[in-house]
Structures are given as C-alpha cells and as structure tokens.
Amino acid sequence: MRLLIKNIRTLAGILPAETLCLRGKEMASARSIDGAYLVADDGIITRFGPMDEMGEVVADEVVDAEGRVVFPAFCDSHSHIVYAGSREGEFRDKIAGMTYEEVAARGGGILNSADRLAEASEEELFEAAERRAWRMIRTGAATLEIKSGYGLTTESELKMLRVIGRLQKALPATIKATFLGAHAVGRAYKGRQSDYVDYVCNEMIPAVAEQGVAEFVDVFCDRGFFTPEETAKILECGKRYGLRPKIHANELASSGGVQVGIEYGALSVDHLEEATEQDVRDLAASNTIPTVLPGASFFSNLPFAPARMMIDAGLPVAIASDCNPGSSPSGNMKMLWSLACIKMRLSPEEALSGLTINGAAALGLSADRGAISVGRRADLVVSKPVPSLAYLPYSFGEELVEHTIIGGKIV
Ligand code: NIG
Ligand code: FE
User: Fold this and answer.
1) Nearest-angstrom CA–CA distance, 177 and 108
2) Is residue 144 a part of any domain in this protein?
3) Span 311-322, pLDDT tens digits
4) 43 alpha carbon to ligand 2 midpoint, in Å?
5) Which among 33, 252, 256, 287 is placed 20 to 30 Å from 125, CA to CA?
6) What pTM did the predictor assign?
C-alpha cells in the first residue's frame, strides 16, 4: 500500500532518522521544505523532498496537499481519558475561588471521579473513552498514553487498565498504559495513607504486573498527595515488577518529586508548574524528560511551567495534554501548541518538537515516530489550507486538522 502526498505547501518536522529527542536549542532545529512531496509504503515513510524532484510516482492513495502544511502527528504522552461522568460542578467552585487542593481536601477532585468510576460498567467506560480518544485522533494525535488512577482499589484499577487494553485493540492510534494507583488515597484508607501505599505495593502492583496491563508506573508526588519517600517506595516496587517510572511532580509545590523521579530513572517527570532553578539543574544532569502540561495551567489557573528556562538550560521539553475531568478536560494538542507559544514563549517550531518527537521520547517510542524521516512511521497531520506553519498555533481555537494519517492510512 503506497500513499503519496503531493504539492505540500510546507513539510515540517524533518529530522535525521537517528535523532531520538531534541534538547534545548535543537528544539528549533527540525528542517522544513516548502513545496514538497512525501511517499509512504506500508505505513513507513520511504521518500520525501521538493516537488521538482518527485518524478513519476504510482500510488494507491494520493492526497493533494496544495496550500496545506504536513507535519508529524502529535504524540500525547500524558492523559487520563478513562473516566466516568464529568466535574463541571467543581469548575463552578473553582471559578468562585476554591483551589484544586481545597476541592480535593473536602473529598472532591480525584475521589469524586473515583466514586463515579466505581459505579460505571466497563462497557460505559470504554464507550466514553473511545469517543474522547477519537476526538484526540481527529485533532491530530496518533500516539497516546492513558493512565489508570480513578480506581484506587485493585478491582477498579484493573477495570480501568482493561478498558485501556480494549482501546489499544479498537483504535488505530498507538496507546500506552500507565498504572497510577497512587493518584490519591482511596476512601477506604482515609487517614491511613501509609497503609494505602502498602496496598499499592503489595496488592495492586503485583496484580497489574501479573495481568500485563501496564508498562509504566506513575505516582502523584506533590504537596497534599504522596511524599517523595512514599513515591520512592512505589517506584522501587514498580521497577521490581518491570514497570518503568513516569511521574506527576511539582504541580502544587516544589516538593522533591523531580529528584525522586530522577533517582529512580523516571522516563519523564510531568507537570512542573512549580519547578525551581535547582529542579532544572538537576534535570539537566539526568536523562529524565521534563513534560509540561499547559492545558492544566490554563484550565486550573496555575502558573505555567518554566519551559522557556528549561529549553534555555538545554533540556528536551515534551508537551502533553493531561486530558482529565478535573484539571484539564481537553485533549486538543493544537490548543496546547498555542498555549506553549503564548504563555511559555516557545517558538512555533520549538513547541511542535515538544508535541511530537519529545512526546514520543517521553514514551520511549521516538525511534520510529515523532518526526519526518525515512524509516519512521507515516503518522502525519495534513492541515486545512493555511498560509504557514506558524498560522496553526497563531489561529488558536480554530480547527485546522484536515486529515490525521496513522501508519500511512487516513483515519
Ligand atoms: O494530572 N495532578 C494529578 N492528576 C491529574 C488531575 C486529576 C483530577 O483532578 O482528576 C492531573 O492534573
Ligand atoms: Fe496528570
């Protein structure tokens, strides 16, 4: 099966095949070609270049991208899209002045979603998550990470992970599953946080590993949630069972999450709204990828993570949606592109690297996706007609994805 995309106004996000992530200044270094074509065979990019070098190409499917920009599909490395119900009541409370922590302290927030999830059938959860995932695919994502974490009992955490397993089979996107049992202390363990940590380590993790339903282990390491010591215990245990750490840190306070993540070899530490200069220095001396979530800052009215400082310090910043019912109920990566430019002062090209190659790296998948290179997967976005690449984040809120192509097929 051969796909040809021709007459592309700008083909963006071109990188050498061996590049696995872009650090610091390199985030602005992906090449682009104005007036380009691209060929994919059986889902893999086999050729691309300027139109005047295309010659005769016979293809099964031809897309005429006249006036359109083509770029690597988004890799959303952090989401929580398996959930029941919604939380617009808390949205009202936050508008009226309550903080995220106050909502959580009165038993709302994550526990509110856990109550609803416990009542929902697997089928209901699957259907709702499938709709959300399709919306994310139609707005340009081809790779998604999805977390558990609204179960908070072994049974409900496994239910969530089974739903993610069904999504992996039902959707054309690549989906990675993360176990987040330590998202909050389950209601049955109220006031007994260290017993809950033992429950996560002694019951949940062995069950998750035995059923082979997750690849990563996550902890909400932050003020009012789990401490660095508790996080260390859970990551240590997760690693013993073959789960790779990838954690929530420093959303509400610089609380040692970055350092514990680095110490346990986390693939990424995510959120970082409250990251300090010391956190940035520690990340610079590690292989852990900082992932920023501008949708959570926007929706929850938090500071934006200091992504500009991180890039200036040479870090490989990834950008993800955090799509979840409490702090960021949107999986629209193009909106995050705008927010990263406007609120974090990234150039359109830097932000695109964060949303593609570095997002793929934050899932350990960047060898075969996240950029335009011969040999990488043909996971691509074809925009609607636009004057330039920068028009995409500039025109915030305007839906400009015409096609999402996954594995060389228009989905
Ligand atoms: O990444 N910060 C922790 N977890 C989610 C929010 C979960 C929720 O409020 O439902 C987040 O923002
Ligand atoms: Fe999150």
Assistant:
1) 25
2) yes
3) 999 999 999 999
4) 31
5) 252
6) 0.97
Residue with tokens 């702090």: 327
**Which range marks the domain in which residue 277 is found?**
75-361
Residues 148 and 245 occupy one common structural domain: yes
326 and 398 in a single domain? The answer is: no
Is residue 60 located within the same domain as residue 80?
no
Same-domain check for residues 282 and 391: no
In angstroms, what CA-CA distances link 212 with 85, 90, 169, 208, 352? 27, 35, 15, 6, 33
pLDDT digits (tens, 9 = 90+) for 390-403: 999 999 999 999 99
pLDDT at 106 over 90: no
325 in contact with ligand 1, CB cutoff 6 A: yes
Q: Which CATH number is 159's domain given? A: 3.20.20.140
- Alpha-carbon distance 120 to 257, whole Å? 32
In a domain, 149, yes or no: yes
Work out the number of other CB atoms within 10 angstroms of the CB of residue 105.
12
C-alpha to C-alpha distance for 321 and 133, rounded to whole angstroms: 12
Mean per-residue pLDDT, 321-350: 98
Query: Is the beta carbon of 300 within 6 A of some atom in ligand 1?
Result: no
Taking a 5 Å cut-off on Cβ, the residues next to ion ligand 2 are 322
Both structure tokens of 208? 């998750």
